[in-house]
Design a protein that fits this description.
Number of domains of chain A: 2
Structural class of chain B: mainly alpha
Radius of gyration of chain B: 18 Å
Largest sheet of chain A: 2 strands, antiparallel
Order of helices and strands of chain B: HHHHHHHHHH
Oligomer: heterodimer
Number of strands of chain B: 0
Strand order of the largest sheet of chain A: 1-4
Number of domains of chain B: 1
Number of helices of chain A: 11
Number of helices of chain B: 10
Structural class of chain A: alpha+beta
Order of helices and strands of chain A: HHHHEHHEEHEEHHEEHEH
Strand content of chain B: under 5%
Distance between the termini of chain A: 72 Å
Largest sheet of chain B: none
Largest interface: A-B, 15 and 20 residues
Distance between the termini of chain B: 14 Å
Chain lengths: 276, 196
């Protein structure tokens, strides 16, 4: 019996001492953490996409806790549900999130434009771009090597017929693709919009027409027919001002009148809208 | 001084904990996929090995040996090392948050790592003095670092190469680990003759 006690007692004493030290240390050294932080962090989707403009979800959660002026509607992937939870926790008014989807401003697929040479290098748009602006005859167009598709956390982008296409139903609107595309072809638009310009070629009309049958030639026809005055041709390419493109009295007239068909009526209603 | 250098070098190369003694294999296979996580883990191991030796050596010498309790060595060491790592984590979180963030998940992972326990027990078994024990721990940690960093390089090469389907994943990793540890056999006897 004695031999058991001589073994057990020292171990128990050491254990108690260790426990005491740990308890004291955790009390003394406790780091003050905003008690709302874990709750706020749990609301966020954890995609760390950076759409909110902060360094990942942790960064956004920290900013929300520390600075009451931080808007709660910055998380585009989380949409209204997250914004509602955040405003509940932080006790601020609910702010509607403008859900966004990515749109590729290039429609130059295999049937509309051609390659000017054969590219057999690294399968990356950024690398191909360095080689005479890419293999396509249009140096503004989609390079179709899938940098955007690789970076997409939702697999919402795929390369079809030599041009990147976004599946709006899968897109969470994080904007990683827009930041990756070396030709800046992708932009985020609110998922209520219904017309898009699928060309980014800034060359003069004649040059554009030579390289791609889908290209915007800057004829300004859309500018004239648009009843809201929302379309302007800037740098030889039509640009839609979505602030004005609302309640259109003659919806789709721009797409119908486009000479080359680069303005499209598209269904951009993304995942969030479909759920509602 | 020469003896310290011999201890250090033989701990790094000849008695490499991972590749010669086969201790600490779980992090060796688990965390060696990426270079930065391998390096982070190894730095945490070096840190904990030194701390653990500094804590357990006096316990052995001034508590266990005088009271004839040598047989409690393993359990007491595990207890002390576990508590120590927790304490270090709390202290780091308070005073050096950046280091705490970079060691991050690795600290609790190595609480009861066999390499750490192995170092502390072997230090006693070899009959080292306190300074020698600390040098041996440092060497063991550095050896772990060397093995992890080397092997993460090997693994990244494996990932990119064409491997028969049945060998993919863990099998080829184990084969690669075996070959890497064979290469460390070449160091046998080098250090002793370096100074003699």
């Amino acid at each position: 019996m004695d031999s058991i006690l001589t073994a057990v007692i020292p171990v128990v004493i050491i254990g108690i001492v260790c426990a005491a030290v740990l308890v004291v240390a955790s009390k003394l050294m406790a780091v003050k953490e905003d008690e709302r932080f874990p709750a706020v962090r749990d609301c966020l989707p954890g995609a760390n996409c950076g759409a909110c403009g902060f360094a990942g979800c942790d960064g956004y959660a920290k900013a929300l806790c520390e600075n009451p002026d931080t808007p709660t509607n910055l998380c585009v992937p989380g949409a209204d549900a997250v914004s509602r939870q955040l405003s509940d926790i932080l006790g601020v008014e609910f702010a509607d999130v403008i859900e966004k989807v990515a749109v590729v401003h290039c429609g130059g697929d295999c049937s509309r434009t051609e390659d000017k040479f054969l590219y057999e290098g690294i399968k990356s748009c950024a690398a191909a771009k360095l080689m005479y602006g890419g293999k396509g005859s249009c140096s503004y167009g989609c390079l179709a090597l899938g940098d955007c598709a690789n970076v997409c956390p939702q697999d919402a982008i795929c390369i079809e017929d030599g041009v990147a296409r976004v599946n709006a139903k899968k897109c969470i609107g994080c904007g990683l693709c827009a930041r990756t595309c070396p030709n800046n072809l992708i932009s985020l638009v609110a998922d209520v919009e219904r017309v898009v310009v699928t060309c980014s070629n800034k060359d003069k009309g004649a040059l554009t027409r030579k390289v791609c049958s889908n290209g915007c030639i800057g004829c300004k026809k859309c500018e004239k027919v648009c009843p809201m005055g929302a379309i302007t041709v800037k740098d030889n390419v039509a640009v839609i001002d979505y602030d004005k493109c609302t309640d259109c009295t003659d919806f789709g007239v721009c797409a119908k009148n486009c000479t080359t068909g680069c303005i499209l009526v598209a269904d951009l209603s993304g995942m969030h809208r479909v759920k509602e | 001084m020469t003896k310290l250098i011999i201890i250090l070098l033989s701990a790094v190369f000849i008695n490499n904990y991972v590749l010669s003694r086969f201790l600490g294999i779980c992090p060796f296979l688990g965390v060696s996929k990426k270079l930065d996580s391998a390096a982070g883990m190894s730095i945490a191991v070096i840190f904990v090995m030194l701390m653990a030796t500094a804590a357990t050596y006096p316990i052995q010498m001034y508590l266990l040996v005088p009271n004839d309790l040598g047989y409690l060595q393993t359990i007491v060491f595990i207890l002390v090392i576990a508590a120590l790592v927790q304490l270090v984590e709390i202290v780091l979180k308070r005073f050096i948050p950046s280091l705490h963030k970079s060691l991050g998940v690795y600290l609790p992972l190595i609480t009861t790592n066999c390499a750490v326990l192995g170092v502390t027990i072997l230090n006693i078994d070899e009959g080292y003095t306190f300074v020698e024990a600390m040098v041996n721990s440092l060497g063991s940690g550095l050896g772990f670092f060397l093995a992890m960093v080397m092997f993460s390089g090997v693994r990244s090469t494996i990932e990119g190469s064409d491997i028969p389907k049945s060998f993919k994943g863990l099998p080829i990793t184990l084969i690669a680990a075996a070959i890497t540890s064979l290469s460390f056999l070449g160091f046998g006897g080098v250090v002793e003759n370096l100074f003699g």
